[in-house]
Design goal:
The chain has 330 residues and is of the alpha/beta class. It folds into two domains: 167 residues, Rossmann fold (3-Layer(aba) Sandwich); 135 residues, Rossmann fold (3-Layer(aba) Sandwich), CATH 3.40.50. 49% of the residues lie in helices and 17% in strands. The strands form two sheets. It has a five-stranded parallel β-sheet with strand order 2-1-3-4-5, with helices on both faces. The protein has a four-stranded parallel β-sheet with strand order 7-6-8-9, sandwiched between helices. The radius of gyration is 20 Å and the shape is globular. The mean pLDDT is 97.
Length: 330
């Protein structure tokens, strides 16, 4: 399936994802836990980073994102361990699950099949089975939706966030044409430039999503940093004028009031050295709608940038090469 079609299906993925969860809700969501660990990488793992950001304000227990073969030493019987692998064959995630099983953690799997699905069946683990056959990065609507449903049902984020998630489907569909128009305009502005993404620390997951999509879809290098941390280091690096960079500030009206001031000051400083400075504001009636809006917008930006560059948006041969070389190692 073409990437354009997959991006268009994002609100439909959210809708279907909610149905998947409601049809077969994991038993584990009703347990009591000392901590939560979400294990996943790339397009399968970014949802974990985003839900961690969302839950920081609400969860009374630690939530950790794991992107390693191993797992944190604290994982044990009091851990809710969520393994997210779209293909079900991500070797780092499979390894982490094996360690979590040894530690007797409670495990929920999010996958479309593969080894992870087989492990879930063999070990009688909760599994949320999502549709397969597409690039993992193009199915965030499924995987992130499962995490929001899990966290909402488990009381780690407000229960009304599930309603907000459902409402985000209509919000995105109603604003689709303006999202596409805005994305096309931004893609033209950043074309041919190195993109630097800045956002509030509470919204870092969305910035990471943008960076990853620029890498995979648009075939460009970029970087991101967060406010206020970047004000204590990276800001000092802005000392030379250049037309080779484009700075994108991702903002929300809910960002910390002190950081709102920092954004304005940072814009003034960066604008002295960079000719392309863009602001993306999350739009919507609540936090979930703003997150889903921004994810959809940046996905479209990277699609149009790939078109402008004339690159194959689906091509990930270098990742396939890496996996092949790893498979040759005992």
């Amino acid at each position: 399936m073409k990437m354009k079609k997959l991006i268009e299906e994002f609100p439909g993925q959210i809708e279907k994802g909610i149905d998947i969860f409601k049809t077969n809700p994991p038993k584990a969501v009703h347990g009591k836990y000392a901590n939560v660990v979400i294990s996943g990488l790339g397009g399968s793992g970014i949802g974990g980073t985003i839900i961690k950001d969302i839950s920081t304000k609400f969860a009374s227990i630690p939530v950790t994102v794991n992107k390693e073969y191993s797992i944190p030493a604290f994982v044990g019987e009091g851990t809710l361990f969520i393994a997210s692998s779209y293909s079900g064959d991500t070797e780092e995630t499979i390894s982490a699950v094996q360690y979590a099983l040894e530690k007797r953690a409670t495990i929920i799997c999010i996958t479309s099949g593969g080894k992870l699905f087989q492990i879930a069946k063999e070990k009688d683990l909760d599994v949320l089975l999502i549709p397969g056959g597409s690039p993992p990065r193009a199915n965030l609507g499924y995987s992130l939706t499962q995490l929001i449903c899990i966290f909402s049902t488990a009381g780690l984020i407000p229960t009304e966030y599930l309603n907000d998630l459902e409402n985000s489907v209509d919000f995105i569909r109603k604003n689709e044409s303006s999202i596409v128009e805005k994305a096309h305009s931004i893609a033209k502005e950043i074309h041919g430039k190195r993109v630097i993404i800045y956002t509030d620390a509470s919204n870092e997951g969305v910035a990471v999503r943008f960076r990853q999509q620029l890498n995979e879809n648009s075939k460009v290098l970029c970087w991101h940093h967060v406010i206020p941390e970047m004000n204590h280091n990276e800001l000092v690096g802005w000392t030379e004028k250049s037309n080779n960079e484009a700075v994108v500030f991702i903002r929300n009206t809910s960002d910390h009031s002190r950081n709102q001031h920092r954004f304005e000051i940072n814009k003034g400083i960066v604008s002295k050295y960079c000719s392309t400075v863009i602001e993306i504001w999350g739009e919507g009636n609540n936090e979930i709608e703003k997150i889903m809006f921004t994810i959809h917008l940046v996905d479209w930006i990277t699609y149009f940038l790939a078109e402008l560059k004339g690159v194959d948006i689906m091509d990930i041969k270098v990742i396939d090469f890496l996996k092949k070389k790893l498979s040759e190692i005992d």
